Amino acid sequence: MALLRRFVKEAHNSRFLLQSISRRSFSTVNPNPIASPGRRTSVEFDTLIYEAGNSGDFEAVRRLLNSRVVNACFNTTATFKFLTNTDSYSSSLEDLRRILPQTDAGYTRKHAYETLIARLCKLGRIDDALNLINDMAIGKFGLSNSIFHPILNTLTKKNKFEEARRVVELMRSHALPVDLTSYNYFLTSHCYDGDVAEASKVLRKMEEEEEGVISPDTRTYDALVLGACKSGKVEAALAILRRMEEDGLPVLYATHAHVIGELVESGYYALSVEFVMAYAGKDKKLDEENLGSLASKLIKRKRFKEAKLVLKEMSVRGLRMKNALREFHDTNMLKS
């Protein structure tokens, strides 16, 4: 609650926050490693596993799971794509439960379980995912917090909080403390619904966990900004954003989008332009996202004067415009 109280206390000064926004650069690193010639890629391994799983050759699946890790081609979201909600689902899952304990011990086995659990969650098979966790516990295959994350993510997104809390208790029963990522799933879901009361309860639990060793991260702040915006408290959202920067955390593009959306929705058109301009010039991609999104929202609300100002900035800065914005710019500004 102390965290939330700080934000509320600062909210009344938020109209002037734009004057003190950090000049820190929001750069993004996008590594694109190139596979060595002659080596199989993760995509190729996924294709081979897909074919083996579809044909029922689960010994081949086991061998491929082993060899791909040896070749540094780690599992992806497509690794178990052959497992679908069809008539063969049950038998395929049982075969996977049979061969996974036979994969190489350590990272290979643990990551195979983790990837399969994520696949089951995508299919909505939470009970089966929990059965796999039980298999890991019995086999002592290295249960960790991350194994539970896909389950908590799925349940909280569907607002199945009672089930999610039972999963948390299961984590505790295996001597796994509830980590920040787990709390963030609950927090994000409550904030998405604008449920400030429940979000406050989550914050209180975070502060109490392990005597306050859990500190908010980028996702935590993003959820809080979203919650403030969803509940119509744009001043609080700006206060939270400033606190995030003061804590030295990188700001997600989505966090800016929450604020821009609420400013426009609340009719603060001039302030929305002031907000995006306060960040302009630090990150080209962020500029394209912020200015482009704001221009689109302003045009939709027929705030053409402000939209033209934003588009002029995009043009001067050489920023990419989406087709609809480019058409509006060329039609309404080049001829004027």
TrEMBL record:
Q: Where are the PPR repeats?
A: 179-209, 217-251
Record's superkingdom? Eukaryota
Report the coiled-coil segments. Answer: none
Q: What PANTHER family has UniProt attached to this entry?
A: MEMBRANE-ASSOCIATED SALT-INDUCIBLE PROTEIN-LIKE (PTHR47939), OS04G0684500 PROTEIN (PTHR47939:SF1)
Name assigned to this protein? Pentatricopeptide repeat
Organism, as annotated: Arabidopsis thaliana x Arabidopsis arenosa
